[in-house]
Design goal:
CATH superfamily: DnaA, N-terminal domain
CATH architecture: 2-Layer Sandwich
Structural class: alpha+beta
Helix content: 40-55%
Radius of gyration: 14 Å
CATH topology: GMP Synthetase, Chain A, domain 3
Strand order of the largest sheet: 1-2-3
Strand content: 15-25%
Low-confidence stretches: 96-100
Number of helices: 6
Order of helices and strands: HHHHEEHHE
Distance between the termini: 38 Å
Number of domains: 1
CATH class: Alpha Beta
Shape: elongated
Amino acid sequence: MSLGQVLHSLLRNWGVDEKVRERQAVALWSKTVGSQIAENTEAVGVEDGRIFVRARSSTWKTELVFVKPEIIDRLNHAVGKKVIRDIIFVSDSWGSGISP
């Protein structure tokens, strides 16, 4: 077994594999969604299979709803398992902190 396989096995046995993959989805947001979306959004957290994403404006928030299923598929493919089941888009003053 490779070191990666051993780690995945340990994480699965400890019951934290999905939580780690959820966090990976947040970290991989910018690489997964492409440059234009990445420039106008920020993944700010994840909880119970829902990733929270701040959009630059309400216009962006509305546009992203139409591509949500495709983004979910890309994120799940990037982390190697179906752990993200929804994206919650929020619009807030760009640069102000929000927490899910």
